[in-house]
Design goal:
The chain has a two-stranded antiparallel ribbon. The protein has ten helices and two strands, in the order H-H-H-H-H-H-E-E-H-H-H-H. By secondary structure, it is mainly α.
């Protein structure tokens, strides 16, 4: 390899590292997302990295960029033919309005870019829906169920089953692993709640804390035999909160309207 070629490669690599760090810092700042394992696909960050590399900070709207990332996750943008989708989005990043072009690509999946309750009906291994649920709770100013402290997604945060799996029959337990049954709380408090009956431990939590995690406050729903209705109502709350986040992130766009 020629010395000049080597220098170009090294320079490009350094710029990639810098832009990646910018993208990670942007996501951490806008979403409090300090753990990246919840991002279901590393491809989600690629357009963010490219825009960070090509658009100056003073000309870039970070909130809009994260709003696009949230919608891309919600709509499973890079599932299936991910290379084709990524190629389309990389071309969009070269547009004079990269976020607008990226949103146009998403409208090929769904014309109206708004969350629906059924978007939160996936299982716990559906990381795209899990990220969307976290963003919905984040928009509602998520607080820990026991301590009431602000939640950021870091190493000490667990995915807590609101209606504990152990309360279900063996045949029903797989159904409890639904996104609509997951809240985000500290590992210590998750262990403290354990398999306590939901109608008992939820009663001790303030309504504003329940609201912050999009948990229905109707006590009649806090029973295992009401699980399906509880989850149905929580999906609606998550969808509404997610859409609130998108509108707040990009108020001048038509997304989530």
């Amino acid at each position: 390899i020629e010395v000049s070629d080597k220098r170009r490669v090294l320079a490009a690599w350094k710029e990639t590292v810098r832009s990646t760090n910018k993208a990670l810092a942007l996501v951490a700042s806008e979403l409090g997302l300090l753990r990246m394992d919840i991002l279901w696909s590393g491809a989600l960050l690629v357009p963010v990295i490219v825009v960070c590399a090509t658009v100056a900070a003073k000309e870039r709207d970070d909130a809009e960029l994260v709003g696009w990332l949230a919608l891309a996750a919600l709509l499973h943008r890079y599932s299936g033919a991910s290379e084709t989708a990524l190629d389309q989005d990389l071309r969009a990043c070269r547009n004079r309005d990269p976020v607008g072009a990226l949103l146009s690509n998403l409208r090929q999946i769904r014309g109206t870019l708004s969350a629906r309750p059924e978007d939160f009906s996936g299982r716990l291994n559906d990381r795209s829906s899990l990220l969307a649920a976290y963003i919905a709770c984040r928009h509602s100013k998520a607080r820990d169920l026991l301590s009431g402290s602000k939640i950021n997604l870091q190493d000490s945060i667990d995915r807590h089953h609101i209606l504990p799996r152990a309360q279900f029959t063996r045949e029903q337990r797989a159904g409890a692993d639904t996104i609509a049954n997951i809240a985000f709380i500290t590992n210590e408090n998750n262990k403290a709640i354990g398999a306590n009956a939901p109608e008992v431990y939820l009663r001790a939590i303030k309504k504003e804390v329940l609201d912050s995690q999009c948990i229905p406050a109707t006590q009649e729903l806090w029973f295992i035999d009401q699980a399906e209705e509880f989850w149905r109502q929580r999906r609606e709350l998550l969808a509404n909160a997610f859409n609130g986040f998108v509108v707040e992130s990009m108020p001048s766009r038509r997304a989530a309207r």
